[in-house]
């Protein structure tokens, strides 16, 4: 890895929505010069040129350019869909040097499966970010393989801190991170959709309902962050005895809202493990124990 962090060469292997969320945040935070960042995908050169125009990064649209970028990168970001990952990692095998760091954002894919696919113990950071990285408010869990050295760990953490909060966890906890914050924005948007719809039914314009809902979610999250109080305490402060909020919460309880959310997060983590098992069986020919 280059001595100076802002000279590090990054290669985005996969250039879809998660890659762009990270790209946007990392270039805005000047983590490394855009001329040090190469982007590649399976076959959509227009998409790569669009990323070049927007962020100043370097497209690698041809097979030769891809191989060159993968060979020379300090850090390769694995950002393809889980179903495409085994084939893509196998293709990396003949190109890699032992000192290159692989940073994976792929749901379910374990460090061990990456090692199986490569046939060696390459340094790996397995992460689970979320799309709020686009605006610098991401929440990312990161775990490392034993071979990742101090400077690689520090750079990977800095990459995700450039786009929000980064928390180092043990690898078995990455599925929990997936359940809580990786997929988390979708649950919040789902709740917001319901709030907006109800607001419109009660007579607000769509625009007013959307703004009031968004500001409410932003304010509530900021209250948790800035006061340090638990959500439960903050909720009780909104809930006057026998008042309007109590009537609303009792209705949510009747529909088992908290239980539904709990089950959803457990199922999300379980689905990540299932997806990881599917990639593992493709890698080694049998599901993990
Ligand atoms: N979207 C989200 O909120 C989050 C996604 N993730 C993970 O990010 C990964 C990517 O997800 P999205 O960006 O939503 O997918 P996407 O479908 O938008 O992008 C995937 C990219 O990978 C490329 N690709 C596929 N096979 C390739 C190959 N062999 N060589 C080069 N490029 C290849 C595709 O061309 C495309 O550019 C997934 O593994 C997902 O689990 C993780 C956290 C959050
Ligand atoms: O839905 C998915 O599988 C990905 C992983 C976390 C968020 N989106």
From TrEMBL:
Coiled coil: none annotated. The keyword Amino-acid biosynthesis applies. Catalyzes the reduction of 1-pyrroline-5-carboxylate (PCA) to L-proline. It comes from Cohnella suwonensis. PANTHER family: PYRROLINE-5-CARBOXYLATE REDUCTASE, PYRROLINE-5-CARBOXYLATE REDUCTASE 1. Its main location: cytoplasm. Residues 9-108 form the Pyrroline-5-carboxylate reductase catalytic N-terminal domain. This is Pyrroline-5-carboxylate reductase. It is an enzyme of class 1 (oxidoreductase). The gene is proC. Its EC number is 1.5.1.2. GO terms for molecular function: pyrroline-5-carboxylate reductase activity.
